[in-house]
C-alpha cells in the first residue's frame, strides 16, 4: 500500500472513530441536556446507541450461556458502584444492583411509582396492577389478595390443588416422554383458572395457556411491531386473550343478569364484578379483563417454572433429595389414620422443603427485574436519579451477592439453616406495597407437588445437557423433555381419588 493509501486508510479509521463516538453520545446529549448540573450527579454508565440504547448488549447476554455478563460488563467498565445509567426498553434508566438501593426503590412509594415500559403495559394491560395509581392499587390488591392468602381460603384450595397434582403425576407416568415444563404450566394454569373463574372448558384453557406462551416471549423483547419479531406475535396473542376473556365476562354478566348462575361460592371474577369503591365506582369489562390477564399469567408462569427447577435440583442432588423425602415420609407417618390428603398445618411443617424452595427461588430468580419511575429527583448512594427516569431493580445481582450468599451460584438449601437474610437481600416476590399478592399460594402449590413427587416419583431427563435459555424466563431449551417414573407405592398414604 502506497503513501496516499495509508493516508486514506487513516482518514477512514479516524472518521469511523468520530462517527462511533457521535452515535454513542447522542442519547446522552438528548436525555441529559435538560438536567443541568444534575447530570454530573448521575451514576456512571452509558446510554448506548440511538433508539436501541443498551438493548443489544442486554439481549446478547441473556440469549447466551452467560447472562451475568451484562451486569459484569458494567462492573468492569465503571466499578462496583451499585448503580448504573443505561437506556433500556426505550427509556433512560438507572439499574440498581445492591440490596439497600433495591429496598429503597421498592418501599419508597413517595419517591417511586410503577415504571413498566410501554411494551409491557400494552401486553399485560394498562388497567392491571402494572400501571394504576397507588390508591387504585391498594383497593384492588385488598380485593384480590385476600382470597389467595387467607388461611381459610388456602385450606379450601389445597384439596383442589392436591387432587390435580395426584391426577397429573399419575397421568404423566403413563404418557412416556413429555415436556415436563409444558405439562407443569398446564397444571398450574388449571389451578389459577379454578381460583379466578371456577371452571372453564378444556378447550378454553388450552387456548388461553397457548396464547400466554406467545405473550410472555414479548414481555422482555424490544417493542418492534413487525412480523417476525416476538413483540408482534405477543400483541396478536394479547388480542386473542382479550377476545376469549371478554366472551367469558360477557357470559358471566348475562348469567348474573338472568340470575341463572348456580348458587356456588363466589370466585375471583364474581368479586371483581361486585367490587365497588368508596365512591360507588364499579369495574368495567376492560378493567376486569386486564386484571385477569395479569393474574392468570403471573399465577401460573412462576409456579410452573419454579416447580420444574426445584424438581431438577432435587434430582441433581441425591443428598438433598434424600433429606427432603425423609421429611415428607415423616409427615405421612405422623398423620392420623383417618386423614386423607395434606393439611395446611403439615405444609407449614415442611421446614427443609421450604429451604429447598427458597434456594430455588434465589438461584433461578424468576423475575430478573421490576420497573419503577422516579416521581421526583431521588438521591441514593451519592447519586441522583432524575425525575421521570426509569429504575430497574436488578434482583439477580442481589441474589448472587457473594457477601450475602457464599458460593452464590451453588444450589445449597443448607445455607438457610439458622439464616434469615436482612431486608432487601432476598426478593423473589418483589417488595414493598407491590409485593406479589400470591406468594403464599405459590409456595403452597409448589410444596404440594414436591410432596407427592418426592414420595412416589422420579424424573428421568431425555437430555440433561440441554442448553438453558434465560428469556423470557430461565428454562431448559427442550422444556425439560423426559419421563416421570413411579418408583414406590408402599408405605405412602395418598389422597383417595
Automatic annotation (TrEMBL):
Heme binds at residue 436. One of its GO terms (molecular function) is heme binding. It is a single-pass membrane protein. It comes from the Eukaryota. GO terms for cellular component: endoplasmic reticulum; membrane. The keyword Nucleotide-binding does not apply. GO terms for biological process: brassinosteroid biosynthetic process; brassinosteroid homeostasis; gibberellin biosynthetic process; sterol metabolic process. Its main location: membrane. SUPFAM superfamilies: Cytochrome P450. Keywords: Heme, Iron, Membrane, Metal-binding, Monooxygenase, Oxidoreductase, Transmembrane, Transmembrane helix. It holds the Pfam family p450. It is found in: Membrane. Pathway: Plant hormone biosynthesis; gibberellin biosynthesis; Hormone biosynthesis. Its cofactor is heme. Catalyzes three successive oxidations of ent-kaurenoic acid giving gibberellin 12 (GA12), a key step in gibberellins (GAs) biosynthesis. GAs, which are involved many processes, including stem elongation, play a central role in plant development. Belongs to the cytochrome P450 family. PANTHER family: CYTOCHROME P450 26, ENT-KAURENOIC ACID OXIDASE 2. This is Ent-kaurenoic acid oxidase. It comes from Buddleja alternifolia.
Amino acid at each position: 500500500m502506497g503513501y496516499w493509501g495509508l493516508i486514506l486508510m487513516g482518514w477512514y479509521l479516524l472518521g469511523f472513530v468520530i462517527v462511533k463516538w457521535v452515535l454513542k453520545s447522542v442519547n446522552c446529549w438528548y436525555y441529559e441536556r435538560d438536567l443541568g448540573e444534575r447530570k454530573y450527579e448521575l451514576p456512571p454508565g452509558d446510554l448506548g446507541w440511538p433508539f436501541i440504547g443498551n438493548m443489544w448488549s442486554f439481549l446478547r447476554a441473556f440469549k447466551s450461556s452467560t447472562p451475568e455478563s451484562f451486569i459484569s460488563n458494567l462492573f468492569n467498565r465503571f466499578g462496583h458502584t451499585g448503580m448504573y445509567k443505561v437506556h433500556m426498553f426505550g427509556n433512560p434508566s438507572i439499574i440498581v444492583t445492591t440490596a439497600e438501593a433495591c429496598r429503597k426503590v421498592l418501599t419508597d412509594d413517595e419517591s417511586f411509582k410503577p415504571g413498566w415500559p410501554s411494551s409491557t403495559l400494552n401486553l399485560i394491560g394498562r388497567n392491571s396492577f402494572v400501571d394504576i395509581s397507588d390508591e387504585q392499587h391498594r383497593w384492588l390488591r385488598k380485593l384480590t389478595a385476600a382470597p389467595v392468602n387467607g388461611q381459610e381460603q388456602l385450606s379450601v384450595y389445597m384439596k383442589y390443588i392436591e387432587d390435580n397434582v395426584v391426577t397429573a403425576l399419575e397421568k404423566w407416568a403413563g404418557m412416556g416422554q413429555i415436556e415436563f415444563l409444558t405439562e407443569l404450566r398446564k397444571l398450574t394454569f388449571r389451578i389459577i383458572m379454578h381460583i379466578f373463574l371456577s371452571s372453564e372448558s378444556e378447550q378454553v384453557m388450552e387456548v388461553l395457556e397457548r396464547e400466554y406462551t406467545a405473550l410472555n416471549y414479548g414481555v422482555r423483547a424490544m417493542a418492534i411491531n413487525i412480523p417476525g419479531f416476538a413483540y408482534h406475535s405477543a400483541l396478536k396473542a394479547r388480542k386473542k386473550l382479550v377476545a376469549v376473556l371478554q366472551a367469558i365476562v360477557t357470559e358471566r354478566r348475562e348469567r348474573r343478569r338472568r340470575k341463572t348462575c348456580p348458587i356456588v361460592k363466589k370466585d375471583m371474577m364474581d368479586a371483581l364484578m361486585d367490587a365497588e369503591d368508596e365512591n360507588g365506582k364499579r369495574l368495567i369489562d376492560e378493567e376486569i379483563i386486564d386484571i385477569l390477564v395479569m393474574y392468570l399469567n403471573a399465577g401460573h408462569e412462576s409456579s410452573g417454572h419454579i416447580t420444574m427447577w426445584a424438581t431438577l435440583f432435587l434430582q441433581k442432588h441425591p443428598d438433598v433429595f434424600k433429606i427432603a423425602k425423609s421429611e415428607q415420609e415423616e409427615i405421612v407417618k405422623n398423620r392420623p389414620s383417618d386423614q386423607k390428603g395434606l393439611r395446611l398445618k403439615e405444609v407449614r411443617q415442611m421446614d427443609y422443603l421450604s429451604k429447598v424452595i427458597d434456594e430455588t427461588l434465589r438461584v433461578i430468580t424468576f423475575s430478573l427485574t421490576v420497573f419503577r419511575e422516579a416521581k421526583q429527583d431521588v438521591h441514593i448512594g451519592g447519586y441522583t436519579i432524575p425525575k421521570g427516569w426509569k429504575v430497574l431493580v436488578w434482583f439477580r445481582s442481589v441474589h448472587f451477592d457473594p457477601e450475602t450468599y457464599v458460593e452464590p451460584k451453588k444450589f445449597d438449601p443448607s445455607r438457610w439453616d439458622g439464616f434469615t437474610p436482612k431486608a432487601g437481600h432476598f426478593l423473589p416476590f418483589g417488595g414493598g406495597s407491590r409485593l406479589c399478592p400470591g406468594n403464599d399460594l405459590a409456595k403452597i402449590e409448589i410444596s404440594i407437588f414436591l410432596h407427592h413427587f418426592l414420595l412416589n416419583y422420579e424424573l428421568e431427563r431425555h437430555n440433561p445437557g440441554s442448553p438453558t435459555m434465560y428469556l423470557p424466563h430461565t428454562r431448559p431449551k427442550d422444556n425439560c423433555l423426559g419421563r416421570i417414573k413411579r418408583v414406590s407405592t408402599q408405605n405412602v398414604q395418598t389422597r383417595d381419588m
